[in-house]
Amino acid sequence: MSATSLSASPARRRLPLELIGGWEVGLLLFMALLYIAGIFINPKFFGQPDAFSAVLRDTARFGVMAAGMTFVIVNKDLDLSVGSTYGLVATVFSIAFSTSYYDLGIVPSLLAAIVAGVAVGLINGIFVTVLRVPSFITTLTMLFIGRGLVLGLTGGKTISYGEKATQNGAWFFSIGETNALGFNNQIIIFILVTIVGMFVLAKTRWGYETYATGGNEMAASYAGIPTRRVRIRGYVLSALSATLAGLMAVAQDKGITSQYGQGAELIVIAAVIVGGASILGGRGRLLGGALGAILVTLIDKVLREGIPMTRTMKVGGVEMQVQGMAQLPPGAVPAFLGLILLIAVLIEPWIIRRNVFPRLWARLRGRPLPPVIEVGGVAIEGAQTKGSSASDRSMRARGPLGRFFARRDAAAIVLAVVLWVVGLYLRPDFWGSIDNTFNLMLSFTEVGLLAIGMTYVIANGDIDLSVGSVLALSAATCAFFMKQLGFDPWTAVFLALLAGAAAGVVNAALTVGFGLPAFVATLGMFYMARGIGAWMTAGRQLSAFPESFNLLGRKLIDILTYLGIAPTRDTLLYDLAAAVSVQTIFMVLVAIIAGIVLAKTPFGQMIYATGGNRRAAEYAGINAGRVRAISLVFSALCAACAGVIYVAFLRSFNPSAGQLRELDAIAAVIIGGGSIFGGYGTIIGALAGAAVIALIRALLSLQIILGNGQSLVMPQHWVNVFIGLILMVAVVGDIWLRQNDVLGSIRHFFLARRKSGANHA
Amino acid sequence: MPEKAPLLIEMKNISKAFGPVQALRDVNLRLAPGEILGVVGDNSAGKSTLMKVMTGAYQRDSGDVLVDGQPTHFKSPHESRVHGIEMIYQDFALCGNMDIAQNIFLGRWPRRGLFVDRRRMYAEADSVLKRLKVDVNSVFQKVESLSGGRQQSVAIARAISFDPRVVVLDEPTANLSVMATERLLETMAELKQHGVAQIIISHRLTDIFEVGDRIMVMKRGQNVGDRYIAHTNEAEVLELIVSGTPETALTADQALAAKAA
């Protein structure tokens, strides 16, 4: 969105500022200021002329990705997978090209990389359009699958081929070089892509179709625009630009690390939104995206470069000046980028549509205020899409078994039992033991706890992408206060829960108060919470906490022993207390309370009503905003509890705590009968779903002893890829089997055919 | 007919603007107990806006809304409900994921202690549906699996379970089959017998002429005429819709007097 189209009356449009677009000019001004600030803070880096070209060079890759992302966002979609695609493409190219792997020529390697990129785009597009899976779920899963693939393919190792690059395909690797004119060739590509993209989006049918689809998809499809194809095209363009960016990166580095492209999606999405695109679709310009990319990369650079400072130290009675850099710890930068993303998303609806600056200016001059552009309680959220009207299968169900299978959570319960039996069949020696059962319970506890909170949020028709990060934030808070500041465990636990609740309150304020879609608000928190956690602990692992705290993650017997009231050995009570852990008891308690509230009380009914039809709920006097806010805070609290338990159980805090857990929790709720569109979900189902996830993880990491005596364990990266696939299958299955009853329609179709066939005979 | 009971609802000189758009300008509306009033007019005539001002979904810029002669300032539809005003929305405003009984008691589920009293809820929902003579399989059926006509029956059942004095129906026949429309009109007549006043917003004059007592015509946010059904015909109403002006608007009584003269 540019300020031109909204704030200008015809008379004012002649002003030069309006002609070039006020938004872009503002971006340029802000950038110049930031650069000057950068020079002021860090003259060593930003003072050099090279720095300018270095910033542009690093921007080039993000700028290219922003071009593709602009199409997706204008289409009213979202692509969280660009960073993964970027890494995956670089990995595929490197593996194909590297002498230590396939050692292919430059052209086949490039082809392989492009095929991989296009495949990602097509898969994204088809899942979002044809299979109607919400875009953030599809591309978030693709993000994790891509990351798992990169780790799995590289085995976490660095690949480099500087030697081969000089002999083979020098023309390709020259992309990453500085040219005769003194700047990097990537900058030329960035400018070319931006110009071509601007032309396509502003002047061609493709661009017009994109704006129409994003503005009002239904109207566009009534007008004969193949909106499905337009949206798939957006995803393919986005994946292609990520492919190009990935290839630019390998051309520059002549090698990869397994961390390639991590977090790139955040920079790219923030760039496009900062560049003036609306997350609600239909608005956005490529030039804005490109400028946004420069701005966000610049901010990223300023944050990462750190401030040089001189510290005076006394060494052996002599004062010495030590040069040092005050730097943000690794992992903290996303906290700022997430914040920028959220602020940028809020600018369009709250500053521009409300004409805040012109109104302020008019008020200062005592002129009549220009009108607010949109009034009448227009929510900035997109319309809630429902699956479709389903036939009520429970009305056809007969007998207790039929009634059980008509339940939405039946599949999860059956699946959990089946998976357990499979485990027993594969490793009867190990699986059947009490120990293993309770170890399973442990991994189940974390997912279960997150899934309980997530059930509330999903039943409301919202989503919480931040649970894994909030878990990390609360774990970090707990560890930090105990270890660094020496707080006693209970205060630390209280503060950790407080931090989690605060994250939930921010989520709630952004979704309910500011009307952002829940996935955008919690996506911002996804980066912010983990970043703040990493910042607090300076990206390090913390361990060695008081034993009284660690008891939270121990078995019941340890507590009883600690308190000196342990039962004697070899009694049933002793065995039981030795088997059950504190966290499992806690999780079961939370589950029972949350389950009763959701199923039996008016508050639970309010949640289902809000998720089913928010407008109807509000007409009926339900404060839907309050219900949604409470659910989001509850979800964050559950995640915070899981974080505290994590630290107590592992006796240490690791900054990667809870990574991918949001995926597990969402998958658990969907498998357990929740609907991604809201209105459904039970605690029993979510727990069964969490059991399914825990069992799949356990099964996949089971050591299988092959016939020839070798044993086989699947690496964790591949397990994550598999969990991502499970989530996709669960969401697609929910939309098509539970809600649209595809099986029923197929049965009907064949029954009708048979009947008509019989009539013919 | 001229000698009337005191008015149930009276809206006087209502104005409402959305930014630069003047949606309502000095509109008046009168509704007697047990009366069925049809509100007609072109698109953008302000019919729905007027109803939303009445129920408190929108806040008026100026004018008065009197209920039983008392001035009111409803902040939300919830407050007008307390005064016995119920609105049935064009899309019925039901939660498809919940069953019929849960929808009838949406937002005011009967409780026992902390919990929802399910037995009472289903029993009372059943009796409301029986009173309406709606044939649904059971109160346990999910609303999204019902046809449009049945969904509307649920919406009406929900409205009358509040024992309202006024029911506002927004385009009630727009999404219904002929059969369902017939049944709806019967229901409306029955409600009238129970003394429930109704306001029906519709494009279909035939429906209003079948059950209505009075018809009010709006155009571009203003009153352009008001007639008793018994003393007018579709042609006259169409004439008003197309070429009526606020200056030539007559109230139903004035029109009757003019006709008699």
User: Which fold name is given in CATH as the topology of the largest domain in chain A?
Assistant: ABC transporter involved in vitamin B12 uptake, BtuC
Domain module count of chain B: 2
Which protein chains are joined by the largest interface, and how many residues does each one contribute? A-B, 33 and 32 residues
Strand content of chain A: under 5%
Which architecture of the largest domain in chain B per CATH? 3-Layer(aba) Sandwich
Strand order of the largest sheet of chain A: 1-2
Shape, per Cα inertia axes of chain A: globular
Structural class assignment of chain A: mainly alpha
* CATH domain class of the largest domain in chain A: Mainly Alpha
Subcellular location (chain A): Cell membrane
GO molecular function, one term (chain A): transmembrane transporter activity
Transmembrane segments (chain A): 20-42, 54-74, 80-98, 110-130, 136-154, 187-208, 232-251, 263-280, 286-303, 332-352, 410-426, 438-459, 465-482, 494-527, 576-599, 629-651, 663-680, 718-737
Membrane topology (chain A): Multi-pass membrane protein
Question: Which properties best describe this structure?
Answer:
heterodimer, A: 761 residues, mainly alpha, ABC transporter involved in vitamin B12 uptake, BtuC, 2 domains, two-stranded antiparallel ribbon, two-stranded antiparallel sheet, 4% strand, globular, disordered N terminus, B: 261 residues, alpha/beta, Rossmann fold, six-stranded mixed beta sheet, four-stranded antiparallel beta sheet, 9 helices, 34% helix, transport (chain B), nucleotide-binding (chain B)
